[in-house]
Design goal:
2 copies of one chain form a homodimer. With 197 residues, chain A is of the alpha+beta class. Chain A has one domain: Jelly Rolls (Sandwich). Chain A is built from 9 helices and 8 strands. In chain A, the strands form 2 sheets. A 4-stranded antiparallel beta sheet of chain A has the order 1-8-3-6. A 4-stranded antiparallel beta sheet of chain A has the order 2-7-4-5. In chain A, a hairpin with a 5-residue loop joins strand 4 and strand 5. The longest helix of chain A is centred in the last third of the chain and has 27 residues. The radius of gyration of chain A is 18 Å and the shape is globular. Chain A starts with a helix and ends in an 8-residue tail after the last helix. The C terminus of chain A is likely disordered. Chain A binds a DNA duplex (30 and 30 nucleotides) through helix 9. Chains A, B: It comes from Hymenobacter crusticola. Chains A, B: Pfam families: cNMP_binding (PF00027). Chains A, B: This is Crp/Fnr family transcriptional regulator.
Amino acid sequence: MEIVQFQQHLSRQLPELTADELAELTAAFTLRNIKKRQFIVQPGFVADHRIYVVQGAFRAYVIDPAGIDHTIQFAIEDWWITDVNSFIYRTPAQMFVVALEDSTVFQLDYATEQRLKQTNHRFETLFRLHAERAAAYHQRRLISALTRTAEERYEEFLAKYPTVFQRLPQYVIASYLGMSKEFLSKIRNHGGPKKLN
Amino acid sequence: MEIVQFQQHLSRQLPELTADELAELTAAFTLRNIKKRQFIVQPGFVADHRIYVVQGAFRAYVIDPAGIDHTIQFAIEDWWITDVNSFIYRTPAQMFVVALEDSTVFQLDYATEQRLKQTNHRFETLFRLHAERAAAYHQRRLISALTRTAEERYEEFLAKYPTVFQRLPQYVIASYLGMSKEFLSKIRNHGGPKKLN
DNA sequence: GTGCGAAGATGAACTAGTTCATCAAATGCG
DNA sequence: CGCATTTGATGAACTAGTTCATCTTCGCAC
């Protein structure tokens, strides 16, 4: 069942968690089904939940003044997603987070998370680890955006997430990689000798 | 003295800290003077310290295959700096972190930080907050890099860090903003009616 | 002081990536 | 099924930003 997958995931994050703690932790989350194209975060509203994806796919994106959307993060099974800025500072979100497929998630609301962290040192540790990894992830992404050409970012993506590529529409990947969808299409077809479909 | 400033900073981060805790925490750090141009992190070596800047300025940067450097982060008084990826995953750093001025810092080594976090729930909370804010910072920076033009990023920087601009050489700011130093120079002189010196 | 390296300004030529427009194929859905 | 919407390919014209090269200015070392 979903809860087993989720507890295994949490156990991998922090092996010290006891069975009781895993049970308490997961009980604090709500299992929820989300339909394709449904939004779980929208600009103007505070992102009140942290989401763990059991099954499905999401993307978080912003729309710039010119109306172009930019994917900040995506998430498939076993990943987490929310608008961090909005969630931690309790300010209105700048992002959209939308389901790309019919999905199943565990969600945790802000107040419950605070309670968990206060009552158990190890829960605090779990969220600290989570935040550190998120910081490292965003920093790696920033480095990639600043130091690599469009084609290099595409190759890097293919190497890192080979399965994700088939699964998401190309315009989502283009907007994640910081290039126009037309250019991604050109890279894929002409670009270099490599032409994995 | 430096330690007062540092304790005030920590108190602002987490007001619940008692005087005893502040004392214990700051005692775990080492006060250190660092000369201009000295490196505190270098590629190939694990970043073993987290640095709080008491006085001075630093920048963290990577060098791409073409030899161009890209500033990932800078830090002046009351900011923190290290190579997060290297520090938390204990892998060789990809970055340089260098002093831009003669500086004074408090540094905390990895093992001591682990001990602090284990022994006191509130210290764990402090580092959790720190990591969350770092994640949010890097995410905002990524959004800016993806959604704004060079000129907009420059204006944003001016608005956000007006004092920093005078203090750092222009090529550092250009590499932080993700543009060539020549282009930053052109923006500053021709760009728009605004021409703050 | 003067000589020299580092920082900034400026222009001309160039290019990586965008925009716009059209066409083709795939997918969903009533 | 069959139509409509979404997704992807491709080419031509364009532009934001780069690269390279030259010149000036400024700080500071001896």
